[in-house]
Design brief:
Blueprint lengths: L2 H9 L7 H6 L18 H9 L1 E5 L4 H4 L20 H11 L3 E7 L28 H12 L2 E6 L17 H21 L5 E3 L9 H7 L4 E3 L7 E2 L14 E2 L1 H5 L14 E2 L2 E6 L18 H9 L7 E5 L10 H18 L4 E6 L2 E19 L7 E10 L2 E8 L6 E20 L4 E8 L19 E6 L3 E5 L8 E9 L6 E9 L2 E2 L4 E4 L2 E9 L6 E8 L4 E7 L1
Parallel strand pairs: 1-2, 1-10, 2-3, 3-4, 4-5, 6-9, 9-10
Antiparallel strand pairs: 7-8, 11-16, 12-15, 12-16, 13-14, 13-15, 17-25, 18-24, 19-23, 19-25, 20-21, 20-24, 22-23
Helix pairs in contact: 5-6, 5-11
Length: 555
């Protein structure tokens, strides 16, 4: 399959082969992607994917403003989280089932939650602990006590300094100063708080930091930027597409902003996905008003099936309030979610591992089963391209379900069945595959009805017109959520058009890495919007028609 077909499978149906069709297909697809050239994970990527669930913590002056973006209005004298307790944060992570915490040490406003020497806009200039407090230090100690891994979010954007998305500044002189400041901030975070498991460069990163990462965080997963080893799924809803292939092309990896849309099973770079969502969706920061947004348990379960169950990492945000605590409703819901996942999948009826061509699991006796977990041994690449599941009852094999990708993990609910054996048959693969886990469960609970649906696609929205072959439009009001958007150019007479030299400006600063032509569609642009709160201008030229309409859609 080419990349355009895979994009269609991401934004359309789920590309699951019917069993009869799959059985008639050749079992090997070496011609389209020889197994010897498939992308393979590093040991660090494999270990990270095995963590599966992490907890995000957002905490900044926004918390005092009841805003998602710091407007720099809060006096530093007002920031005093007197009850801050990172042990409570770590306890919540354990209840959630998280194996690591990613802490927002600096959000886009530029406020630093550690004892930095790079700026006066930070926790050391507040009354909290007489200016001696260090949230990163507290959290590092709490994580070590409970065996949790620690990651950090260091925003490249810094509104206090005047650096836009990716850390881009409006002048070369200011860019040089900010790059140096950012490198110092990163070095502080990587050298003072022990080994970090994950580092977030949200919105990608202009400054060169590869040497710092190599010296001080060689095993950490890097989110976005030139050194990226993991990628964003592309939305903040908590949903990953299916299939969710782990590989991308080298050229897409090098952009630093590849997402699920760039998935390519024959790609040469292993770049697994992290799916993020807030328990107070869509709010990332605590406010007195947003407790009503607390996700119900059934929605969190839907997110789990459509993220971890699709083979991606799940990072759930639980923000701290002005006291420095996670609110009781949030921690209670987190525990409920963790308890339910442990109840459903903590103990299997039976499980095995082995060759993927045909792997049979004999059950101790005829047993009711209703869900199956599949995990591929990806050390030689993600090889399985299609499979089917069957159950044996009364001596006869019957269909249970089928799918395409397995990868790190595939959770597949099945019609409740009493069986004495289950088998997995790889009907299509890129070379000999291996299954590290085939496990069956009797959960006694129905899965979310949407467990296998692709992410929701919004309707097209007309955002402007072009005339005389050029355009410049302000789409700020149309960017309502971080994520990816498709901008389609439709000529008045139906002609095929080509968009040339598109420029995306955020607050007047060009962001070339965030706008790309859709593969195989020269009249379609893909915009990657890592956040809100900035003026968004798109300009360029159109060849093939003098005038037409531009239609925007959020994936």
């Amino acid at each position: 399959m080419n990349r355009r077909n895979f994009i269609n499978s991401i934004i359309g149906a789920t590309s699951v082969l019917p069993m009869a069709q799959a059985a008639s297909r050749a079992k090997s697809v070496h011609g389209s992607g020889p197994g010897s050239r498939l992308a393979v994970p590093t040991p660090q990527q494999t270990a990270w994917q095995d963590l599966e669930i992490g907890m995000f913590i957002h905490f900044a002056p926004n918390t005092w403003q009841a805003r998602e973006y710091d407007d720099l209005s809060t006096p530093l004298s007002a920031i005093n989280p007197a009850q801050l307790d990172t042990d409570q944060w770590a306890e919540c992570a354990e209840g959630l089932g998280a194996k690591y915490i990613v802490f927002v040490a600096k959000h886009v406003g530029g406020f630093c939650m550690w004892q930095t020497e790079t700026t006066d806009y930070g926790i050391r200039n507040t009354p909290w602990r007489n200016g001696k407090g260090d949230v990163m230090a507290d959290l590092s100690r709490s994580c070590r006590k409970r065996g949790l891994k620690l990651g950090v979010y260091l925003s490249p954007r810094d509104d206090k300094f005047g650096a836009g998305t990716g850390g881009r500044c409006k002048t070369a002189e200011k860019q040089t100063v900010y790059n140096s400041l950012y490198r110092r901030q990163l070095t502080e975070l990587l050298t003072r708080y022990g080994e970090l498991v994950e580092i977030w460069f949200d919105g990608s990163l202009l400054a060169c930091v590869g040497d710092i990462l190599k010296d001080h965080a060689p095993h950490a997963m890097i989110f976005q930027g030139r050194s990226a080893t993991i990628r964003w799924v592309g939305n903040e809803d908590g949903f990953a597409p299916y299939p969710a292939w782990n590989a991308v092309s080298k050229s897409d990896a090098e952009t630093g902003v590849a997402t699920a849309m760039h998935s390519d099973p024959d790609g040469s770079v292993w770049l697994p996905m992290e799916t993020d969502v807030s328990i107070l969706r869509p709010n990332w920061f605590w406010s007195p008003q947003n407790e009503q947004n607390l996700l119900p348990l059934d929605r969190l379960l839907e997110i789990y099936y459509r993220s971890v169950g699709h083979g991606t990492q799940l990072l759930i945000n639980i923000p701290a309030d002005r006291r420095g605590l996670l609110s009781a409703p949030d921690t209670t819901r987190a525990r409920e979610f963790g308890d339910e996942i442990r109840r459903r999948f903590g103990r299997s009826v039976a499980e095995t591992h082995g060759s993927a061509e045909t792997l049979t699991l004999d059950l101790p006796s005829p047993t009711r089963i209703d869900q199956v977990i599949l995990q591929e041994d990806c050390s030689a690449g993600q090889r399985i391209r299609a499979y089917r599941l069957e159950a044996r009852a009364h001596g006869k094999w019957q269909a249970l379900g089928n799918g395409t990708a397995i990868g790190h993990k595939r959770i597949q609910p099945v019609t409740p069945t009493v069986a004495d054996a289950v088998r997995l048959i790889a009907t299509r693969s890129a070379g000999p595959g291996s299954i590290r886990r085939l496990a069956v469960f009797s959960t006694g609970s129905a899965p979310p009805s949407t467990w296998n649906e692709p992410p929701h696609i919004w309707a097209d929205d007309a955002v402007g017109e072009w005339t005389q072959g050029s355009f410049s439009i302000d789409i700020s009001e149309k960017i309502t959520a971080a994520g990816q958007y498709r901008l389609r150019f439709v000529a008045q007479g139906g002609e095929d058009v080509i968009v040339e030299n598109p420029q995306l400006l955020l607050d007047g600063v060009a962001q070339p890495n965030l706008v790309h032509q859709a593969p195989g569609s020269p009249g379609v642009l893909i915009l990657t919007m890592p956040g809100l709160g900035q003026k968004v201008i798109l300009a360029g030229r159109v060849r093939g028609a003098e005038q037409g309409t531009m239609l925007l859609r959020r994936f």
